[in-house]
Structure formats: C-alpha cells, structure tokens
Amino acid sequence: MHYSFKTEGVCSSQIEIELDGNIIKDVQFIGGCEGNLAGISKLVVGMTIEEVQQKLARITCDGKPTSCPDQLVMAVTQAFELQAGKYSR
C-alpha cells in the first residue's frame, strides 16, 4: 500500500511510504536534511510499524515539539490504520 503524508512543523514537507501489512517496504522524505533522512529511510525498511513507533516516537528537533522521525511515526501509524480500515482522511 502506498501512502503520502503531509508533515507539520518540520523541514521536510511530505513523506511517501510503502507498506506490506505492518512491514515498511520503502520511505522517501520530500525536503529536509537529505543525508540524514535518506539514512533514516534505509534503516526503517524491513521494520514493523511497532518497531518504528518504539524507536522514533517523541523525538524532537531544535526546540520543536516534533521531528522528521516523529512525523514518520505519525505517517506509518496513519498508513497502517488506513490500510486496516481504522482511519479515514
């Protein structure tokens, strides 16, 4: 399942996600710190939604209440819930 997530409060503007059940198959950030976000994207491929939630939730950036990793948690959670029919846009 492909999902596009509009970020809020961070440098990246959007996150593109590909899920297979609860497994992350691909992640691409649009905008933001290119090298760091490319690294995060590669590291989370193959992880479950739960693993990403446990590792990246509530990380902040430069005094902001969120970060690109935290936004990724929101994105994969929404994508998974949409896939399961528990969330509607």
Description:
This protein has three helices and three strands. It starts with a strand and ends in a 6-residue tail after the last helix. It has 89 residues and is of the alpha+beta class. α2 packs antiparallel against α3 (68-83). The protein has a three-stranded antiparallel β-sheet. It is 39% helix and 26% strand. The chain has a single domain, classed as Enolase-like, domain 1 (2-Layer Sandwich).
Characteristics of this structure?
89 residues, three-stranded antiparallel β-sheet, Enolase-like, domain 1
Summarize the structure.
The protein is α+β, with helices and mostly antiparallel strands.
The description of the largest β-sheet is: 3 strands, antiparallel
Structural class: alpha+beta
State the order of secondary-structure elements, H for helix, E for strand.
EEEHHH
Number of helices, where a helix is a run of at least 4 consecutive DSSP H or I residues: 3
Give the assembly state of these chains: single chain
CATH topology: Enolase-like, domain 1
Count of the domains: 1
What is the helical fraction, as a range of percent? 25-40%
